UniProtKB/TrEMBL annotation:
It comes from Hylia prasina (green hylia). Keywords: ATP-binding, Kinase, Nucleotide-binding, Serine/threonine-protein kinase, Transferase. Its EC number is 2.7.11.1. InterPro entries: ARM-like, ARM-type_fold. This is Serine/threonine kinase-like domain-containing protein STKLD1. The lineage of its organism: Eukaryota, Metazoa, Chordata, Craniata, Vertebrata.
Length: 313
């Protein structure tokens, strides 16, 4: 009430945020802090020129969302919060250090389907792409933005086909730039999977995207989530185009089928990885020429192994 009574006075908003922040360590205060997100974001939107207030507000929101995740509470933030966050993103689009924090916040917010839908509604995707282009070198920003893109693109009622199509070159550039950084590559592979699911690729995109995903698998073989999401992205590409299946077979850096076998053996205890690999192979054998090649590479033997390893899946 103290903050709402004096929106226009920056000192009031700053003191209000600092006072709310003093309750963060008190677990019993969490249910009340949850109800303050709109007040905090509105204070940030009203005083966007004050970087100190932006940083303190963003830090407090991160604390509240972190506690929510720890307690298994999904916070579905409303459209007004999404609108305020977008306003803040636009106002500080050149400030790399603050954007890094803000993009982490957006990633946590977008974990909720409702909040992700609200971010999509207010039109945040072009801003995310712009940030990625400007800060392609920043691994933290790239990882967070790709995670947000994934959350927004997998939305079932997606009406942003044209906007999402423009995300492909940027997301591919992120993966190319950070192939050896497992965290970023994992996030970018997930985003590419979502874009493939939404049919955002042109005919000329299938082969280079498949080759790039294979590179990500080769460079990060130990990361189970990356392998799983990379294979699901490849499966989506193969479902759409035989060119992608042939690109996997004939990759210039070595057979994609051999890579699949190696990845399976590395993650024998991961049913999610085995399932993704099987899904990919199932898509590949829809093409006669590809199936013959897979047969010659003794894929049946691998499938029998999978069946023995996971008899109840």
């Amino acid at each position: 009430e103290f903050m709402q009574a004096s929106w226009d006075i920056e000192e009031v908003q700053a003191e209000g945020i600092q006072h709310l922040a003093s309750f963060v360590k008190d677990k019993s205060a969490f249910p009340y802090l949850q109800t303050c997100t709109e007040v905090i974001t509105l204070a940030m939107k009203t005083h966007t020129d004050s970087l100190d207030l932006q940083v303190e507000g963003c830090t407090l929101l991160l604390e509240i969302l972190s506690q929510a995740l720890e307690q298994g509470v999904m916070m579905a933030l409303g459209e007004s919060v999404a609108s305020c966050l977008l306003h803040t993103v636009r106002k500080h689009s050149e400030n790399e250090e603050f954007l890094s924090m803000l993009c982490t916040l957006l990633m946590m917010v977008s974990a909720s389907e409702v909040a992700a839908e609200n971010l999509r509604k207010v039109g945040i995707i072009p801003d995310l792409l712009s940030i990625l282009r400007r800060f392609l070198h920043n691994d933290k920003i790239c990882s967070s933005c790709c995670a947000v893109l994934w959350s927004l693109a997998v939305s079932e009622n997606n009406a942003d086909q044209a906007v999402l199509a423009s995300a492909l070159p940027v997301t591919s550039a992120v993966l190319q730039e950070h192939l050896q950084n497992g965290v970023v590559a994992e996030s970018a592979c997930s985003a590419l999977w979502a874009l493939a699911l939404q049919g955002c690729l042109a005919d000329s995109d299938y082969e280079p995207t498949a080759a790039l995903l294979l590179d990500a698998l080769r460079m990060n073989p130990e990361r189970a989530v990356l392998v799983k999401n990379g294979c699901l992205a490849l499966a989506s590409l193969v479902r759409l185009s035989e060119a992608a299946a042939l690109a996997i077979l004939l990759d210039s850096k070595g057979s994609g089928v051999e890579l699949i076998k190696e990845e399976y053996r590395l993650h024998l205890d991961e049913p999610g990885v085995a399932e993704a690999l099987c899904l990919l192979m199932n898509e590949m054998v829809q093409y006669d020429e590809v199936m013959l090649d897979m047969r010659s590479q003794k894929v049946e033997k691998l499938l029998c192994e999978v069946k023995l390893q996971f008899p109840f899946s």
